Amino acid sequence: MNEADFIAALRGLASNPGARGLEDDAAVLEFGGETLVLTHDTMVDGVHVLEGQDPADIAWKLVAVNLSDLAAKGAEPAGVLLSHMLGADDHRFVTGLREVLDSYDVPLLGGDTVRGEGPRVWGCTALGRATHTPVPSRGGAKVGDAIYVTGTLGAAMLGFEALRGGDEADSTAYRRPRPRLEEGRLLAPHVTAMMDISDGLLLDCWRMACAAEFVAFELESDSIPVADASRRAECIRWGDDYELLFTAPVGVDLPVPATRIGTVTDTDFAPLWLDGEALTPEQGLGYQH
Ligand SMILES: Nc1ncnc2c1ncn2[C@@H]1O[C@H](COP(=O)(O)OP(=O)(O)OP(=O)(O)O)[C@@H](O)[C@H]1O
Ligand SMILES: Cc1ncc(C[n+]2csc(CCOP(=O)(O)O)c2C)c(N)n1
Ligand SMILES: [Mg+2]
């Protein structure tokens, strides 16, 4: 079973509307007059971070990728719970954790600590409060909407290569992603659909188009902001950038800088098009476990 097969097998167990059919970045629960947004992400040594990487970076990334899912729902963080597997340089993990929690003013609420064999694994649950309802979903794109991204894609890939190669180039985008919390909050009232891009722009566009049903995402590659134009194809597939991908009606005055990369259409026989060519996940659109 791969990741998509396993999540599909869980769908029958996740009938509560809060689970959003396991087709969104986060769960959404009405609770005590508030709307809670809940998400969980796991990182594995050697899979999500390089073996031997500074644990301060690992702590930063662990919290940041979870906050990014809250950002995609326009939620403000209420706190995080962490799971930690003891190992080398745990004091550096604590240092990085303090840095990320202070940077985003997020309370640490609890977690769990274990020792075990095999590669180290870290988990984080982030809890947030919706700032706008209905909470944007992945599935709301409408025919005629424009498709946008914040920031630039491919910087994490370049950062990964710099860190792995030990060269002088800047690896910050890979080591210390910055969740777009402020942008997500400002955008939430204006978007028809929103998600964060963790697994690569093309794969996440495919998911957003499939979640909406009966729409296609038609993208123009030249319009997509990439960190290295000579490696455009890789920049829009590699992932780990944690920018926001969203759709909004044409003409909406956006409250934050973003780049239009395409249009939602009713083209009915394929959900994703790049420069007029239909793409499928079998062609390698992004990162899949
Ligand atoms: N093991 C699991 N148990 C329950 N739900 C799961 C499990 N794995 C994934 N899901 C659910 O499947 C959906 C898609 O998850 P996915 O991890 O692709 O989203 P994401 O968290 O936005 O992405 P990323 O992990 O790349 O940050 C979400 O609703 C998530 O909660
Ligand atoms: C050492 C190393 N090799 C490759 C990558 C690339 N990568 C791994 S998982 C992932 C998507 C997000 O994960 P998930 O969907 O599990 O949240 C990406 C882009 C990396 N980050 N580190
Ligand atoms: Mg997400």
Automatic annotation (TrEMBL):
Keywords, alphabetical: ATP-binding, Kinase, Magnesium, Metal-binding, Nucleotide-binding, Thiamine biosynthesis, Transferase
Residues that coordinate or bind Mg(2+) 1: D41, D112
Residues reported to bind Mg(2+) 2: D41, D69
InterPro entries linked to this entry: PurM-like_C_dom, PurM-like_C_sf, PurM-like_N, PurM-like_N_sf, ThiL-like
Binding site for Mg(2+) 4: D25, T39, D69
Recorded catalytic activity of this chain's protein: thiamine phosphate + ATP = thiamine diphosphate + ADP
CDD domains in alphabetical order: ThiL
Positions that bind substrate: H48, D240
GO MF annotations in UniProt: thiamine-phosphate kinase activity
Residues annotated as domain PurM-like C-terminal: 142-249
Residue numbers binding Mg(2+) 3: D25, D69, D196
Binding-site residues, Mg(2+) 5: D199
Documented EC number(s): 2.7.4.16
Start and end residues of each PurM-like N-terminal domain: 24-129
Binding site for ATP: G111, D112, S198
Pathway named in the protein's UniProt entry: Cofactor biosynthesis; thiamine diphosphate biosynthesis; thiamine diphosphate from thiamine phosphate: step 1/1
SUPFAM superfamilies per UniProt: PurM C-terminal domain-like, PurM N-terminal domain-like
NCBIfam families in alphabetical order: thiL
Primary role: Catalyzes the ATP-dependent phosphorylation of thiamine-monophosphate (TMP) to form thiamine-pyrophosphate (TPP), the active form of vitamin B1.
Note: Reaction mechanism of ThiL seems to utilize a direct, inline transfer of the gamma-phosphate of ATP to TMP rather than a phosphorylated enzyme intermediate.
Family statement: Belongs to the thiamine-monophosphate kinase family.
Protein name: Thiamine-monophosphate kinase
Taxonomic source organism: Qipengyuania aurantiaca
Name of the gene this protein is made from: thiL
